[in-house]
Amino acid sequence: MPKEEFQSLDPKFAQSLVDIVACELKKNVNITDDRGVIIASFSKERVGQVHEAAAQRLTAGKIQEFSVSAEDELKLRGVRRGVNVPIIFADRCVGVIGVTGDPETAAPYARLAARFVEAALESNANREKLMIALKEKRELHTIYVNKIISIQEEERKKISRELHDETSQSLTSIIVGLRVLAEMVHSTAEREQIIRMRDLVAGTLEAVHHLAVELRPLLLDDLGLVVAAQKYVDNYSQQYQIAVDIDFVNLSREQRFSPEVEITMYRILQEALTNIAKHAQATHIQVVLRLLRYKLILTVSDNGIGFNPDFSAQPDSDKCLGIFGMKERVELFEGVFAIKSVIGKGTEIVAEIPLKQKKKKKRIW
Ligand SMILES: Nc1ncnc2c1ncn2[C@@H]1O[C@H](COP(=O)(O)OP(=O)(O)OP(=O)(O)O)[C@@H](O)[C@H]1O
Ligand SMILES: [Mg+2]
Q1: Which residues 6+ apart lie within 8 Å of 175 measured at CB?
Q2: Whole-model pTM?
Q3: What confidence category does residue 201 fall into, taking pLDDT thresholds of 50, 70 and 90?
Q4: What pLDDT, in 10s, does the model give residues 52-108?
Q5: Partners of 290 in the beta sheet?
């Protein structure tokens, strides 16, 4: 917040200070702004009036304590007999606080009231500064997480393309070459050895293809989330021999979202399913991807062993990056991430991303 904002007195804040001070001191109290206009007063009808004595001094730059006599009260507008003390904050006079009554008795009260107001302003400003620091820290964290995810996604995309375009092509050429070679040799033993080599390379090609898809499915970029999710689930179900039902609600195969939304939901699906394969001992999984008016919701439920989702209570929680990563990704969109798990019954994770979000945070990947 600019320094200026700390330096002017907020009328509401001034009025509550006046009420507190007047109640504590059992005196009539008023506060003017830095031009001598009464912004808060125990006698509410005075608010908005110019305190002529304060205004004259403030415009002349006379920042010091002054008293108002019974004669002044007759000559000047908006004044009451009493003592007025400048309120100094951040080396600037932000206003004047006046306590009415006999000047001699009012003086110590007025000084006390001014110090009280200054202390309140100081603590208010410190609180504001703390809030700003906290907000900046949070924003920095968001930028940092965003950057890590974007670099990671770029890197995965690059490696995936390389595996797909270079490595897979070379392995395919080797397979074709070995096939030709197998037909050229005359000895059965040699042919069998070449065929074994060819099968080995074919297995490696499959593994490379799988790795490329895990890293960054080209399907996701080309055909979108619905098609890529369906394909991922089909492969997963086959690989782990777990029955998976996937439902798309209000979604067609052609439906596209921004690349950030698509990759986020895809990664969450990937991590949730990987967790089930690794930890859940489940026999059935239900995946639902639902489009509501302004949000996209992914739900993944399993009938596995369940766990305590308050994993901060677990000793090696710092190693559990999967759940942390899902949560962080959703929070970048100001979405909602939740885990419900019952020991012996299963787990459900829900990731909800708002689609019409404020353009507050710049996303780079
Ligand atoms: N569906 C699930 N069923 C049962 N336990 C689960 C399930 N999902 C997560 N867990 C538990 O929560 C823990 C944290 O999961 P998380 O994905 O954060 O870490 P991880 O899978 O152990 O490691 P990684 O960082 O490789 O993902 C897991 O170690 C496991 O104990
Ligand atoms: Mg995990």
Answers
A1: 198, 201, 202, 205
A2: 0.66
A3: very high
A4: 999 999 999 888 999 999 999 999 999 999 999 999 998 899 999 999 999 888 899
A5: 249, 297
Helices 321-332 and 103-162 pack at an angle, to 10 degrees, of 110
pLDDT tier for residue 150 given thresholds of 50, 70 and 90: confident
Residue reference for tokens 């029955």: 243
**Based on the number of CB atoms within 10 Å of its own CB, is 98 exposed (0-12), middle (13-18) or buried (19 or more)?**
buried
Phi and psi at residue 304, to the nearest 5°: -85, -155
Of ligand 1's atoms, which has the minimum distance to the CA of residue 275? 8
C-alpha span between 84 and 123 (Å, rounded): 23
Please work out whether the CB of residue 270 comes within 6 Å of at least one atom of ligand 1. no
Which pLDDT score, from 0 to 100, does residue 311 have? 64
> Which tokens belong to 352?
């909800």
Interacting residues of 212 by C-beta distance below 8 A, sequence separation 6+? 159, 160, 163, 164, 168, 218
Q: How far is the CA of 39 from the centre of ligand 1 (A)?
A: 59
Domains observed in the chain: 3-137 (3.30.450.40), 220-365 (3.30.565.10)
Looking at residue 364, what is its pLDDT? 40
Query: What percent of the chain is predicted at pLDDT more than 70?
Result: 93
- DSSP-derived secondary structure letter, 320: -
Q: Is the CB of 301 under 6 A from ligand 1?
A: no
Q: What are the residue ranges of helices labelled H in 163-258?
A: 168-184, 188-215, 218-223, 225-240
